[in-house]
Write a structure and sequence with these properties.
With about 120 residues, the chain is mainly α. The protein has helices at about 1-5, 10-25, 35-65, 80, 90-120.
């Protein structure tokens, strides 16, 4: 159950990267490639959109596989190994990164929301 339950985070990140790919791809034709700056920017957008498309597709497949383990029967664990305090450090790190990412996404969404409101008016 734990694997499947946590699959929503990588699936959400894959969705976010797919949306970013779409933004890059739809912005690309607006770039004036008549000078070197425009050509460099267009190359950057092309490269990044391809990379993000690949990453999001792969991450989406992995997240789907992770979610498919929903009916995986629970396995026994070695209690003495679970009692090792060293097991908590990677989890602490994970929670810290989750918290930082949540804060970053909240700030970015607020800023992007303001920009979208300006563009819509």
């Amino acid at each position: 159950m734990g694997l499947a339950q946590h699959s929503v985070v990588p699936a959400g990140i894959a969705d976010l990267l797919r949306a970013l790919t779409e933004i890059l791809e739809t912005h690309l034709p607006t770039i004036d490639t008549g000078d070197e700056s425009g050509q460099l920017e267009a190359e950057a957008y092309t490269y990044l959109s391809g990379e993000f498309a690949s990453i999001s597709a792969h991450l989406g497949r992995v997240a789907a596989m992770m979610g498919s383990y929903r009916d995986l029967p629970p396995a026994g664990h070695h209690e003495e190994a679970l009692a090792d305090p060293a097991l908590l450090e990677p989890f602490r790190n994970f929670v810290a990164i989750e918290t930082e990412l949540a804060d970053l996404l909240t700030r970015a969404a607020r800023e992007d929301g303001r920009l979208l409101a300006e563009l819509d008016s």
